[in-house]
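Example record

One chain of 268 residues, shown exactly as stored in the release files.
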Amino acid sequence: MLLAAPLTLLALFFLLPLLTVFGQSFAAPDGPLGTYARVAGDSALRYSLIYTFQTAAIVTLAALVLSYPVAFLISRAQGRWLVIGMVLVLVPFWTSAVIRSYAWLVLLQRRGVVNEIMLALGLIDRPLRLANTDLGTHVAMVQIMLPFMILPLLSAMRGIDPSMLRAAAILGANPWRQFVNVYLPLSTPGVGAGCVLVFISTLGFYITPALLGGSSPMIAVAIEQQVSRLLDWPLASALATVLLVLTCALFMLYERLNRRLAGAGEGR
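Predicted structure tokens for this chain:
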């Protein structure tokens, strides 16, 4: 009985819309599978899917590289410095992603702050095209996704027992071996959780790619174009369904690998 209310809400506001989108993807004039045939046969849509997953992988990797040392420093902080570090990580959540995307558009435009600084320093002779490029899109998306990577890493790192590193040092391990053989494996749950969270969130990004989009639209932008400009709801629903299926498949693969790694760790 206690689960009746939440299950009803989940069915009404989550499962029903998903089923509606899934059913609408078959409502094509050229047959039930016509929209999926168009997705498979349209090179632009296929490239948009590939570009979306490629962008998600780049953003996830960049966010991990930038977030790991930040999370490490915050995890070692104590007292006031720990509070300051946590506040700096959480402050971006208080600002809308739309505002941050527009801020990056202002920073990266031809007469924006970035170009003006490089011109003043003599690093470039003329303004560079940074907005509406893949690079600008990746930079903005990485900045927006950093907190989502830092927090899982920080949670895992705060749970690492410092005596493990001291024991490795007593046994003769240098700092590099302490990190590679002890600290990094113990922090892998945070790495995995952060990468999955950032990767899946990036797949559905719309605002930032729409404002700073580069050579090809991400799939969320392509879906919006099909709905608002071309009024092709069946094709938009098919694209959304394909993206959802691929995302679920990747998540299931991650869960399977995670269970295998956990089992191997317990076996050792």
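Notes: The chain has a mean pLDDT of 86.
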